[in-house]
Amino acid sequence: MDLFFDLLRSVIYGVIEGITEWLPISSTGHMILAEQVLKFSFSAEFMEMFRVVIQLGAILAVVVMYFKKLWPFCVDNGRDSGLAKHVRWPVMRLWFKIIVACLPAAVLGLALDADPWFISLAIQMESFVKCPICLWRIRSKKWIHDVTLPEGEK
Fold first, then answer.
1. Among 15, 8, 22, 3, which Cα is nearest to 54's?
2. CA 45/CA 52 separation, integer angstroms
3. What is the DSSP code (8-state) at residue 152?
4. S-S: 21 plus which of 32, 58, 97, 144, CB 3.0-4.6 Å?
5. Which whole number is the average pLDDT over 111-120?
6. Dihedral sign, Cα of residue 128, residue 132, residue 137, residue 138
7. Which DSSP string do the residues of 121-145 spell out, in sequence order?
8. Which of 14, 45, 30 is nearest to 121 (CA)?
9. Gyration radius from the chain CA atoms
C-alpha cells in the first residue's frame, strides 16, 4: 500500500512540475512546497535524483517544442556562402541576451554556494506572493512587449 501512495505522490509531483514549468511562476518553488506537503518515503539520495529527472523532462519538452525557433543556424543548401549567410542573427542576439541575463545569477550562485533545495519554506511563500505582483506590474508597463522574431524568421 505504501508503494501505491508513493506512486500517487510521484504523479501529483509530476503534474505540479508540468503545469508550473509552462506558467510564469517558480516550478522549483512549487516543487519544494509540494515536497513539504506530500512527504515521500524515499531516501534523500533518491529524492535528489528524482528532482533532477522530473525537471529534466519538462526542460527537454521545451527544447523539443522550440528547437526550430531557437536554433541559430540555417541549412547550407549545398552552397558555401560563408558563415554569415548561415546564421540567423536575430536568434543569435536572443541567445546572447539570455546568456548575459543568466550571468548575475550564475556568479551569485557560485559565490554563495547556493542550493535552491534548502531555501526555507518562508522565503518560498514570500516569493509566491511577491513575484506575481512584480510580474503584473512589469507587464502593465507600455514599454514592455513580448519578444518576437521578425516575420521572415521561424
1. 15
2. 11
3. T
4. 58
5. 65
6. positive
7. HHHHHHHHHHHHHHHHHHHTSTT--
8. 30
9. 20
Amino acid at 14: G
Can you tell me the distance from the alpha carbon of 70 to that of 42, in angstroms, rounded to the nearest whole number? 38
| DSSP letters spanning 77-105 | TT----GGGGB-HHHHHHHHHHHHHHHHH
Structure pTM? 0.54
Would you give the end-to-end CA distance of the chain in angstroms? 50
Residue owning grid cell 514599454 = 143
CA 112, CA 91: separation in Å to the nearest integer? 32
Q: Provide the greatest CA pair distance for the chain.
A: 65
Residue 50 corresponds to which cell in the numbers above? 528524482
pLDDT per position as a tens digit, 30-89: 887 888 788 887 887 888 788 888 888 878 888 888 888 888 887 665 565 666 667 888
